[in-house]
Design a protein that fits this description.
A 7-stranded mixed β-sheet has the order 7-6-5-8-9-11-10, with helices on both faces. It has a 4-stranded antiparallel β-sheet with strand order 1-2-3-4. The relative contact order is 0.09. A hairpin with a 2-residue loop joins strand 3 and strand 4. With 499 residues, the chain is an alpha/beta fold. Helix content is 57%, strand content 14%.
Length: 499
């Protein structure tokens, strides 16, 4: 019995931590604000564990059957947790109610486990051995789960299937307990029947996980989903309405094929036309290849290096016909070299100097992205530039996130760049902004605009640098790694708009 219970500790602690990680990840995916959501989920979960520990004192008799009942309840609730959260998001205006109801319920059940186990084992082990063995296995199980969840389960199985998998593991451990733990025939038969029911429900959930995921995403996105993939780094979804395609990363719109040319022409051509003879171009982010498509319209460009973190992004935009039609198969062009790497680390390596750098990262909605808009990042970038090099950065909306936009400019200035702010109206996004920068003097634009542009011309090149009063410069702190002021501005401003 002792060995069986200790093995159970290892398995069950893994399950308990995965349920916590699932809740935090789903909340971050659906609500944004990664740090805030994880902090709230972890805090409420730990508090609920304390409630569970306190409630366990009222379980006095038949501790082993009660312990197995707790495991079955935890397997059922934890197993269905991700499915419930995804399905409820499109059905309720206050998503925090189902989210924290599940977190509290799961945390309370997890909090009951260790006190019950300690009381069951107290006659089998001395106090010192009992506590040290149980807690060491509990922490070891948590470590295994924390490593396996981001590396294997989330990218390979997805959130919904992962929750059902660990629910099955939880309930299966309870069923195994009915064979190895001392139980009366009455308790044994009842618990096996309960286990069979719970395992059947979870097995059906696992089998239909893809359908559940598809239905929940259909509720989140009004258009037909033609591609959906959870990678090691993000959730990629491509939707289609008639001839219009839209790309979403972690639920946030990245482009619409109906008007993306306004965004990408403004991202690429002002920088390229600010350099006297651009030959070597670097693109950081932009794994969709749309910025690369615009760069290839300049005949002077001899090589383009694209650095994007997610290999799945660059793969689908290199291979899927419906997507390569949009980017003109730009990522397959012989001038283009694709590297899948963390841009922050990639810049730290010694390498070539570039004439033009286009930075097309997602908005700074969390600290992991915010570091890519920091003084540390821009100073590292300067090592890949010379006095004539030009940089252009997508910088969120100067209308909806005014302080965030000007914070990017202030950060670039703090890093030793001369700057020029730009903005453009993109119907899918509204007003959107870019910051042009150079280590040397930032001059005017060359007159040789590429042929075939849909939006930019000489008149528009002048107008995009003129800002009305409601988007004009406001004082902000530069964004540094140790303060991440940009992420704070961004959260405050976009939350105010979305609320």
């Amino acid at each position: 019995m002792q060995r069986a219970l200790l093995i159970s500790v290892l398995i069950l602690s893994s399950c308990g931590l995965v349920y916590e990680l699932l809740a935090g990840t789903v909340a971050s995916y659906l609500l944004g604000e990664t740090v805030t959501q994880f902090s709230l989920v972890i805090g409420v979960y730990l508090f609920s564990m304390g409630i569970g520990s306190w409630l366990s004192r009222y379980l006095i008799e038949d501790l082993i059957p009660k312990f197995l009942d707790v495991e079955l309840a935890l397997g059922l609730l934890g197993g269905f947790s991700a499915a419930i959260l995804f399905l409820s998001f499109g059905q309720t205006r206050i998503f925090q109610i189902p989210l924290f109801s599940i977190v509290v319920a799961v945390g309370t059940l997890v909090g009951m486990e260790i006190p019950l186990l300690l009381r069951i084992l107290k006659n089998k082990l001395g106090f010192r051995d009992m506590v040290s063995k149980v807690l060491s296995l509990d922490y070891a199980g948590a470590l295994l789960a924390s490593l396996a969840f981001p590396i294997f389960f989330a990218p390979k199985l997805g959130m919904v299937r992962t929750s059902f998998f660990f629910g099955l593991l939880n309930a299966g451990t309870a069923l195994w307990g009915t064979f190895v733990l001392p139980l009366s025939e009455k308790h044994k038969n009842l618990l096996r029947a309960k286990s069979a029911l719970v395992l059947t429900l979870l097995g059906l959930g696992f089998a239909f996980s893809e359908m559940i995921t598809y239905y929940s995403e259909e509720n989140l996105f009004s258009d037909e989903i033609i591609y959906s993939k959870q990678t090691n780094f993000q959730k990629i979804i491509v939707t289609r309405y008639k001839s219009e395609l839209r790309l979403f990363l972690n639920g946030h719109l990245q482009f619409s094929s109906r008007d993306e040319y306004r965004y990408h022409e403004t991202l690429a051509h002002p920088a390229l036309l600010s350099h006297p003879n651009p030959k070597r171009v670097l693109v950081l982010g932009g794994g969709d290849g749309l910025a690369v498509r615009e760069i290839l319209k300049h005949p002077s460009v001899e090589s383009i290096t694209l650095v994007d973190l997610d290999p799945e992004m660059t793969r689908i935009f290199s291979e899927q016909p419906v997507l390569t039609e949009i980017n003109g198969s730009s990522l397959k062009n012989p001038k283009v070299k694709v590297q899948n790497a963390d841009a922050f680390l990639w810049l730290e390596e010694s390498g070539p100097v570039f004439d033009v750098v286009l930075i097309d990262f997602p908005d700074p909605s969390n600290f992991s992205i915010g570091k890519l808009y920091s003084t540390a990042f821009y100073r590292s970038l300067k090592r890949r530039l010379n006095e004539f090099s030009v940089v252009e950065i997508q910088s969120t909306s100067p209308l909806f996130a005014r302080m965030s936009f000007w914070c990017v400019e202030a950060t670039l200035k703090e890093s030793g760049f001369n700057t020029r702010a730009l903005h453009v109206y993109v119907p899918s996004f509204g007003e959107w902004g870019f910051i042009l920068g150079s280590v040397g003097k930032l001059g005017g634009y060359r007159k040789d605009l590429p042929v075939g542009l849909k939006f930019l011309n000489e008149t528009e090149l002048k107008s995009i640098s003129e800002f009305p009063q409601d988007m004009s410069r406001v004082p902000t702190e530069p964004n540094r790694l140790d303060n991440q002021s940009l992420v704070r501005y961004y959260d405050q401003e976009w939350n105010r708009i979305l609320d």
